[in-house]
Amino acid sequence: MDSMHALDALAALSQQTRLEAFRLLVRHEPAGLPAGDIARLLDVPPNTLSTHLGILGRAGLVLSERQGRVIIQRADIDGLRALMLFLAKDCCEGRAELCEPLLADLACS
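^ thats the sequence. predicted structure below, dont judge the formating
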């Protein structure tokens, strides 16, 4: 992941509804959710949610998959992984022991 892609992903997540939608989709992996269910659970108008999902999709954080008449929204776990690795990769300056607590927290969540 390059800096511009990371900035797009961080900008997409910096809005409350988009962050809540993304976190909801992560909790519903791997099945995902129809957009209507997301709108209902977050109490957001469907057209507003559609805009938010589009932003998350362009940022590489959400995938859409048609299943018959329904479009299922899913968190793009590979996109999330790439963003997290981008953020943490150089933070330890080559000293892996500094990242061990972060990895332990992620493993226990």
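The first helix runs from residue 3 to 13.
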